[in-house]
Amino acid sequence: MEKINWSGVKGIIIRHMYTWRRDLDRIVDAFWWATMDLIFWGLTSSYIEQYNLGFDIVAVFIGGIIFWSVVLGSQREINMPLLDEAWNRNLINLFTTPVGIFEFVIATLILGMIKLILTISFLSFLAYLLYHFNIFRYGLLIIPSFASLILTGWSVGLIIDGLILRYGYKIQSFAWAMLFVIYPFSAVVYPVDILPRWAQVIARITPTSYIFENMREVLFSGIFNWPKFLTSMFLNFIYLILAALFLKRMYRIALDKGQLIKLN
Amino acid sequence: MRVRPIVEVKNITKIFFQKSPFWKIRKTGKKVIAVDDISFDIKEGEIVGLLGPNGAGKTTTIQMILGLITPTRGTIRVFGRDLRKFRKEILKNSNFSSTYTHLPWNLTVRENLNVLALLYGVENPGKRVNEIMKVFSLEEKKDREVNELSSGWVTRLNMAKSFLNFPRFILFDEPTSSLDPESADTIRTEIINLRKKYKTTILFTSHNMAEVDQICDRVIFLYQGKIIAEDTPEGLARRIKISRISLMVGDGLKRLLSVVRDNLWSARVQGRYTTVEIPEKEIPRFLSLLAEKGISYREISIDKPTLEDFFLLTARKRRKTL
């Protein structure tokens, strides 16, 4: 295996940071929808709270939205740089330097983490400001939970990267939609038990469902369910390995079919 | 002792399969052979031109050498190393410039070069970026975004990019095609000077035959994916063996055309000028026939065959034989 070109990784990160500085929409995009969701569901849950359901509905909804933003952000920030290079017709310039798909993925993961920290910090601040919801009520256990959600976002992101490399622009709208396939089965605001039987089966192989259920358990009982967390991590590792292999295979096929040139 | 070439292309073939419905696992589509079993070497410091009509396989060949397309068969070695196994190492010491690729449009000249210096792992990138901007007179535009530059400046930036990492080998894909003649000439002169200075090996494609003639030491002519000729630009032109003689005939145009017809040569009358195409060795006999038949002319020019003549004639001949 060839050595990782760390200077190349740094180059890709700096290239996209230059773009962030210039293109406001790259930054706004990361905050806008999550903020709108937070406001809408925050207000909705505040309204439902009047009916005294016996649990903190605002915390469930706001927590759910912030946690889901972690999955969504980590996926989107993997795909955005690849699409950005294709839109700029810069893919050929990029892949004729000594960087390969591996360096590109490492750089996008780092870029994604930077943006995710900014987005989640902003959302947490906003949630506290608007609904007095303190994300740190979950304590330090929020870190492993977020880690698991990030891994799910990465797995989906890598699969979408592979599909974009292989099938080109026609797949790009899929980049924004694919993650939402697992949305209903992730139990973001409702428990897995209320799902129909077939949906429960899918939820059990969806790593995010364990994290969202765990989030509510911490809220209601203060107990962090480690077996659920570990199941989620186990599934994530399997999916991440499969997604990485899928991306590698799609990259090979793209080279074989001259797809990088067409994408450029 | 035989010096190992910088680039060794051995029996490479690239076959694309036309699309078949996605539910069919087996490749049922039609085969398209873009490059058909070609081999060539490029020696250190040599500038080789890759010529051929559209669809000849030039760009596919370049893209295979850049590692952007995997050959179906054959091997490519650059700096003595297999491209498949040592891609990164090879690309670290190579570079590429094409009119058809773009640098990020919303980054400035300096930012683009900074990023590229990091991608290529250039030592002391800041210093090198300043140096290369000076070489290509890009300093006055350093804080301009690429989308604010004219095509001439964009080409300059692409040129600066291609020499940024002190490459031993550069591929230029029609680098001057979007430029006016003066800017194109400046770029050509810079390529020649920098090649001398750094002993860079260059593979060059262009549709401008005069440019290829001026820059290239050797030309590889591709047609329908195959190499059909390989020589110096002069050598290829000499293969034509047909010269063009343009005359401004004063008296005896009919007699001239009759001489041409009798000898199975060809002639074209355009306004006051008549152009006769004859084999080079027949020029003395043609001139004596003019005197013998009393054909008077006020002006005469004899044009030797050019690379463009070779290109046109070969392409036409091949099309006819198909």
Automatic annotation (TrEMBL), chain A:
InterPro entries per the UniProt record, alphabetical: ABC2_TM, ABC2_TM_bact-type, Nod_factor_ABC_transporter
**Protein origin, superkingdom:** Bacteria
Where in or outside the cell it occurs: the entry states: Cell membrane; Membrane
Membrane-spanning intervals of the chain: 30-48, 53-71, 141-165, 174-192, 229-247
The entry lists its GO molecular-function terms as:
ABC-type transporter activity
Gene Ontology cellular component? plasma membrane
What topology in the membrane does the UniProt record assign?
A: Multi-pass membrane protein
Q: What is its main location?
A: membrane
Q: Which UniProt keywords apply?
A: Cell membrane, Membrane, Transmembrane, Transmembrane helix, Transport
Q: Which Pfam families match?
A: ABC2_membrane (PF01061)
Q: Which residues form the ABC transmembrane type-2 domain?
A: 25-250
Family listed: Belongs to the ABC-2 integral membrane protein family.
**What name does the UniProt record give this protein?**
Transport permease protein
Its taxonomic path starts at: Bacteria, Candidatus Gottesmaniibacteriota
Automatic annotation (TrEMBL), chain B:
Question: Which InterPro entries does its entry note?
Answer: AAA+_ATPase, ABC_transporter-like_ATP-bd, ABC_transporter_ATP-binding, P-loop_NTPase
Q: Which domain of life does this protein belong to?
A: Bacteria
Could you give a GO molecular-function term held by this entry? ATP hydrolysis activity
Record's Gene3D superfamilies? P-loop containing nucleotide triphosphate hydrolases
UniProt keyword list: ATP-binding, Nucleotide-binding, Transport
ABC transporter domain span: 7-249
* Keyword flag ATP-binding: yes
The reply to whether ATP-binding figures as a keyword in the UniProt entry is yes
Family, according to the entry, reads as follows:
Belongs to the ABC transporter superfamily.
**Protein's name in the database:** ABC transporter domain-containing protein
Q: Which organism does this sequence originate in? A: Candidatus Gottesmanbacteria bacterium RIFCSPHIGHO2_01_FULL_40_15
Q: What is the lineage of its organism?
A: Bacteria, Candidatus Gottesmaniibacteriota
